[in-house]
Amino acid sequence: MSSEEIRKKFLAFFKERGHTIVSSSSLIPDDPSVLLTTAGMQQFKKYYTGEADPMKDFGSKNTASIQKSFRTSDIDEVGDESHLTFFEMLGNFSFGYKPGEPVSPKGGYFKKGAITYAHDFITKEMGLAIDYVSVFEGGDGVPADTESEEIWKSLGVKSIKKFGRTDNFWGPTGNEGPCGPTTEIYINGVEIWNIVFNEYYCKNGKLEKLKTPGVDTGMGLERLVMVSQEKNNIFETDLLQPIMHSIIEIQGDKPIGQIRLIVDHLRAAVFLISDGVLPGKEGRGYIPRRLLRRALTAHYLDVGAGPDKNFFQNPVSIIIDIYKHFYPDLLNNGDRMMSIMQDEVEKYSKILTGTVADLKKLYSRFIGGVDPERLLPNVVVKNNVADIDGSILFRIRETHGVDFEVMKMVMEKWGFSFSERTEKEFDEAYQKHQEKSRAGLEKKFGGHGLILDTGELKAGDEEELKKVTRLHTATHLMQQALRNILGNEVHQAGSDITAERTRFDFTYHRKLTPEEIKKIETEVNEVIARDMPVHFKEMPIEEAKKTGALYFFKEKYPDPVNVYYVGKTIEDAYSKEFCGGPHVTHTREIGRFRILKEEAVGAGVRRIRASVD
Ligand code: SER
Hints:
Elements: H1 3-16, E1 20-21, H2 45-48, H3 54-58, E2 62-70, E3 86-94, H4 111-125, E4 132-136, H5 146-154, E5 160-163, H6 165-168, E6 169-170, E7 176-187, E8 190-203, E9 206-220, H7 221-228, H8 241-251, H9 256-274, H10 286-303, H11 313-323, H12 328-332, H13 334-366, H14 372-375, E10 384-386, H15 390-400, H16 404-413, E11 416-418, H17 420-445, H18 462-486, E12 492-497, E13 502-507, H19 514-529, E14 534-539, H20 541-546, E15 561-566, E16 575-578, E17 593-602, E18 605-612
Parallel strand pairs: 1-2, 4-5, 10-11
Antiparallel strand pairs: 2-3, 3-9, 4-7, 6-7, 7-8, 8-9, 12-13, 13-18, 14-15, 15-16, 17-18
The protein binds serine.
The site of serine (SER) has 10 residues, from strand 8 and strand 9.
């Protein structure tokens, strides 16, 4: 079945069942708590809370849409089988259900209606077999969802898994909004459809019952098309394959991960720019800039013959062609979009060329004076560590205005990763540079030196700083949970926090099991739910060590040190660490903690990426 047929089928299915079809809202949301639209329910928030009347606006309590969505949280995963930054979400929504009300086309519905619709759409309309479903097992004061379990059983679904807050509880977007337990449908092991029962309103981590519960469902179009077209990955579907081909034509078919990255990033940039998110230095604008820069870097590194400033034109025309019927704005904005991209790519080509020239000089130190580009593609240097003075990298950044992650991509292509010392010194040089402009903000955040990375965060971008602060405290809680669950063998081996995620390296001798990962997440979320206070105390370093506070042995701490602790007193604190801050004042401010990935980074060193939402 083509993706076009699938779109039509979805909308027709819900239209026949009394839903009003609503167009996708812009990627720039009305909702000020988030930078971009990340879910279909965002444009409907006020109908869940009762602030607006769906009967008046839609003539029905039920709507359905195909929503343009964008999430940066998965950007590091793009290149694998199923992750994207931009995607489309098929969703049906119901507002103002009265408990006990039978399912009727224009009336509200809840668990029975939502699950039956989803089951019928997947099995009868799409002819797909459900692998298994998951339901909420209860936790943090929210009861287990036995009702959904019974409904699935009555529909003949036998494989039902149960998970807690991390997997089967959704929302809110940003700091507050509707949220609730979920039930998810899996096909061939891939999560296809997330059905949320919005029973609560969450504000700063506190849940309050909504007057009338609602339904919010989201199904990734690209993933549904993938299973329906029996493909192994989203990039082989009719939505993405033509774009893949256009990139392969330019630079051959390897490495596949980089080609997928270019496909994803160009497509996302097209949709963002078309919705008015113009490439720029700060906030939202930084996102299309970063996507285009990463795409051009990947392109340049793989053709190896200098960046072609026009390389994006054919792929972008193909993207517009695929989507113009559903999003006519793409066509209307086509010329403007091309010229914005052209400007951006031209500016960036200069930056990249200068950066690569400087990095080459550094590189030759490690490989005995050889030009790295001459070596390619025959010489593969793997897993070498470039232990460079980080302030040299900072100078390259200042000279060319390039991001740290781009320098990393270039060096990785040549077989090197930067050493921890290099990254740390880069951060220090960056921080020193930012100190002045940041002084005001630090006061506001109660901070004593922010841990930032990559030069992406600009002083003044308060939303991002708040996110970094939440992730920073979450990282302390995670380290303690790791030690509680895995034992005191766990020690910090590095960390890196951006507005999107925390990356924490620690010593441990083996891979973590899914059960252990779950336990760690649950423990962190429990501490968050207890809303424990976070304080710090300045102490002489030796005295601080005696409190049992953790510290990173590679770090040099100025005496006296600040010990940040989570709990009422330093003696009975859940977590205590030497740290410069900043941190939240109470753990609930962190929001929901989620582990995204656990992997090895070296012998006896593991890495966890985690986010908060
Ligand atoms: N809001 C939920 C999600 O984004 C379901 O639509 O997954």
